Amino acid sequence: MHARDIGLYGILVFAMAALSSAAAAFEQITSVSPFMKACWRLEVTAILQIVPMVYEIRKDPEAVKTMIRDCWHYLLISGLCLGLTFSLWCWSLDLTSIAHSLLFSCSAPLVVVVAYFLLCKKVAPLEIVGVVIGFVGLSVVIFGNSESEGSTWYGDVIAFMTAITLAIYMLIGKKLMEKCVPMWTYLTIANMEAALWAYIFAVAVQGDAPIEGIQWIYTSDWLIVIYLGLVPGALGHGAINWLLKFMSCLVISVFINFEPVIGSFIGWVVGIQPPPAIYTYIGGAIVMAGNLTVTYAGSKVKIPGDTEEKFYLDEEKGKTEEMRESLLDDNDNDEGEKFERRISRKHSFALA
After folding, report:
1. Distance between CA atoms of 103 and 108, rounded to whole angstroms?
2. Could you give the count of Cα atoms lying within 13 Å of 185 in the half-sphere of its Cβ?
3. Distance CA 7, CA 9 (A)
């Protein structure tokens, strides 16, 4: 293995550790409701993304104007889904164990395949097998709940609702990335809007005081909130997006599927997560097998003339957009459909 590859894998391990630490960090905040925790995290992430957003706007203002003019409805739905994702996930952490919360919320790849099936898009047989395996594992986890583990069936259901809203967010992100929209501008707008939705949910549903939206600035929780926005948010997700330029999406997604394991271990080390029950081990292994099967099946969708394992949008050269247009304009609709399915796999993980 070359030194460059070792460095890339080192960055990937760091990114996974950063992402997996979020659940334990959220559990340390006890002064506000789960929805307000989500609001705080999204606020900080949006603030940290303003600098690259400004750079994009100055570099290509017309692209930003076009995105807002033509894709405003996607932006609205995307921000709502992202706000729901973090709000529901933080709520699930209060109602069930970290292990269960991460297992159910990380099952978004299964939901994406189901969505493709319901939308009458082609789904590979192996993807269907992966979905069946995944839902069998989820059933084992939810029906094997253990009070000693701190898990509940209703907390598991809320965590799974997180996977549904995340899947919608991923599909919208895929649609926008196909249009080569400015990535940082899109992500910043989505996080800002999501923070606003989480704030509305916190005040209207959970009764938080309106002033609590900025309370993290002057309370003892400020360091944890900064950590959540910077390390799991900006650095963790940013590293995953950057690594997609150099590494196979399959390799990255395999690492991502281990987030429930790493997150549960971190929770146990810091003393806020008891050892998982036996059904969590069994069901969790089955769920991960289902996710990996879906990931592998999606990675095997090939495009004529495509010999590389990785496939990344190159906005400057326009390679992806040109290939997409040439394939979709072709009379062979089956190949165009394959392209759409494969590019969705790539951006699903980039925007997770």
Report:
1. 10
2. 22
3. 5
Residue scoring higher pLDDT (350 or 74): 74
**What would the two tokens of residue 305 be?**
């003339």
Secondary structure class of 104 (helix, strand, coil) = helix
- How many whole angstroms separate alpha carbon 143 and alpha carbon 135? 12
DSSP 8-state secondary structure symbol assigned to residue 309: S
Decide: 26 and 228 in contact? Cβ < 8 Å: yes
- Burial (CB count within 10 angstroms: exposed 0-12, middle 13-18, buried 19+), residue 178: middle
Rounded Cα gap, residues 254 and 263, in angstroms:
15
Terminal Cα distance for the chain, rounded: 28
Contact criterion met (CB below 8 Å) for 58 and 275: no
Q: What is the pLDDT of residues 81-116, one digit of tens each?
A: 999 999 999 999 999 989 889 989 988 888 888 888
Residue 306: pLDDT over 90: no
Per-residue tokens: 218: 């002057």
Region 15-19: what's the mean pLDDT?
Answer: 92
Q: Contact, 106 vs 158, CB < 8 A?
A: no
Coil, strand or helix at 149 = helix
pLDDT of 330 higher than 70: no
Query: 302 pLDDT exceeds 60?
Result: no
Phi/psi-derived region of residue 207, left when phi > 0, alpha when psi is between -120 and 50, beta in every other case: left
CB-based contact 207:34 (threshold 8 Å): no
pTM: 0.79
Q: Which phi and psi angles does 178 have, rounded to 5°?
A: -60, -30
